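User: Quick sanity check before I run a bigger batch. Here is a single chain. Can you write out its predicted 3D structure?
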Amino acid sequence: MKCFLIIALVALGASVADAGGADAKVQPIVPPALQGIRIDQKLNAQVPMGAQFIDDYSKPLRLGDLLGKRPAILALVYYTCPMLCDQILRGIVHGLRPLSLVPGRDFDVIAISINPNEGPADAAAKRNEIVKLYSLHASGAGWHFLTGSQENIHEVTDAVGFHYRFDPKSKMFFHAAGIMALTPEGKAARYFYGVEFEPKDLKLGLIESSHNRIGTPVDQLLLFCSHYDATNGKYTTTVLGAMRLTTAGFLVLLIGGLAWFWRREALRR
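Assistant: Done. Predicted structure follows.
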């Protein structure tokens, strides 16, 4: 219950802050323990490619070792979290299941524990649980669960604007709920909030993050007439985009019709 209260309060703070233009005097009511807990969008921010971690197979690696070829979904969680983090990871799974995009082929999922006291055993246990939830036949390729030192964790969280706090009384990490889409170069391209992620949003975010190197022609058309709303972290269909798509379709039909007519006339002659 405490975890979901955190989500609600952080969301309330964000919505009130967004409405500041209408009433700048209104301030979000946030308990002292949760002040500063938020996710700041840092679009195009570079994650530290040299940050050192240990993966779920006890192998040391740099964050950059997992990037370079494909876009990635980045989840900042911790594996022994009693509720919120598990919901975020399960939300990723539910959002990815319907997609034709495949982890390890089209993109990667990178989870980094914000708890420096967790180790490879915690990461491996969570990996097995989440990969099995994604598919009983999944090999685990493309799923990476990392642990590391406080210094390296902070390098990543600071880079993407993820602000959290450890509460000694409850022995829990207070943090907001959200994930990021990274480009192959390791830049923050899109932010998605909450614990449930729409398949359409994840697909379009990954396609954009890949510089349109993945996805079908139909996906490209959908992306063409969609707009990323940075405030809500979602994609919406725009009227202008729909008009562009309609115009493009009309031009394709017109050109095709003219080509058929000219070909028929040429054959007749």
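The first helix runs from residue 2 to 18.

User: Great, the batch can go ahead then.
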